[in-house]
Amino acid sequence: MRTILRLAILFLAMSLLSGFTSLKKSDSSETNPFSNGGNEKNMIVVISDLHLGADLSYAECKNNLGALEKLIKEIKVSPNVKELVIAGDLIDEWFVPATTDTYQGSDQADFVRRIATTNKGVFDALNGIIQEGLILVTYVPGNHDLTITAANIESILPGINQARDAVLGLGTYSPVGCPIIAIEHGHRYNLFCAPDPVSNQDIAPGTIMPPGYFFTRIAALYVKQGRPAPGGTTPILTTGISTEESQDLLYRYWKMWYMTTIMFPITNKFDEDIILTNVNGFSGSYSVNDLIPYQSSPGELIKVNLFNGIQDSWEARQTLNNVPIHIATSRAIDSVNSATETDYQANLQYFMNPASDKRIVVFGHTHQPKIVASQNYKNEKCIYANSGTWIDHNPNQTTMQFIVITPQNADASSQTLVKLYNFENEVVTKMTENSLRF
Q1: Residue 362 has what pLDDT?
Q2: Span 320-345, mean pLDDT?
Q3: Fewer C-beta neighbours within 10 Å, C or N terminus of the chain?
Q4: Using 50, 70 and 90 to split pLDDT, how confident is the model at 30?
């Protein structure tokens, strides 16, 4: 849930040269990030967390749209790029102020079309690559586009390759000819962001929206209201009369929501039904109090309205979401705000998992770009990379990042290269790189 991670931590031109060498470079970049120095078409570019919205008055990617469009056009004319992978959060159904009707009385298909219209330059550039057919464009879903259907993505990017699990809202992708690479968004391992097909079925049959969706709606309202003084307060819970693990877990869950109300206050009272839904099975309007665990009186059992029983269903959710190595519920709750936990899960689920043969893993989700080398359970070198984000403001981090992977060739001296770049101010800067041979 990158919005949680970003806000909880609290939580930009020279003339163009011709052709694909028109990107400006800093002293720390090569001649061209999309050139392998030869004629082979083998480079894989990964971007993620574009967070394209339907309304630029609140969308998180607005000022960076021109640079994003420019970068996509540079990828298109590169003779060496084989594939462009969009690793989740391409479009944003979550970062919408709580009081805003996301679909404006219509449906998801119309919402997605509005996003394509609002961000026309970016979608025209992507469609230009897809239609030309020389570079494969692959989309992997993230949490902010968790419920966006394959049909609706296809409607705005006809012909795009979609790497989806059988479970809606998830996907893991290995580029053609590169089975040792795994690319996914990374939200599968986060209790607030992974699909939740268990909770709220009596309220919204068929829903998979996790609590992070509601968190993000409140956080977006906080931003829209200009970071105001709080209109309500959250009662402090005491440890309940029960010693059951379920109550302890629900208390931990309460603490996460308590921190949210402190860090991201809104002017509205907590009992106001301000969160407009009408998405993914939900049809009602909800209050902050509907989300926060409560006690009828001090020391009594802790209860919660929305996501009732979430502390007991994490095991089932992990099974349904195909998580290879299950994460303890207490750890999952306590680490919902942790970017390093997402990095750790990449290592655990792939490199330390005897059932996995992956040596290079790329996540998005945290908006914290990096490349980290480690070893797997067989003491082989592995590389984890995070592709960062394209939102306008990424506190304490740069923005506008992308990963470039150049697979090794048959030459015994050749290495598979993984490089992380930044494109702020439309200047290409190589941030870091690593390599391995397999």
Answers
A1: 98
A2: 97
A3: C
A4: low
176's CB contacts (< 8 A; 6+ apart) are: 83, 136
Q: Is the pLDDT of residue 19 over 80?
A: no
Those residues whose C-beta lies under 8 Å from the C-beta of residue 219, and which sit 6 or more positions away, are: 3, 4, 7, 95, 260, 264
Mean pLDDT of the chain: 92
CA atoms of 145 and 143, how far apart (whole Å): 5
* Residue corresponding to tokens 């998992």: 353
pTM above 0.90, yes or no: yes
- Cβ pair 354, 364 in contact under 8 A: no
Q: Give the start-to-end residue ranges of the domains of the chain.
A: 2-91+112-143+161-186+332-436
pLDDT tier for residue 241 given thresholds of 50, 70 and 90: low
Q: How far apart are CA 39 and CA 41, in angstroms?
A: 6
pLDDT of residue 234: 86
Q: Is 372 helix (H, G, I), strand (E, B) or coil?
A: strand
Give the residue among 301, 189, 282 at the shortest CA–CA distance from 237: 301
Cα-Cα-Cα-Cα dihedral of 156, 113, 63, 50, to 10°? Answer: -50
2-91+112-143+161-186+332-436: CATH architecture: 4-Layer Sandwich (3.60)
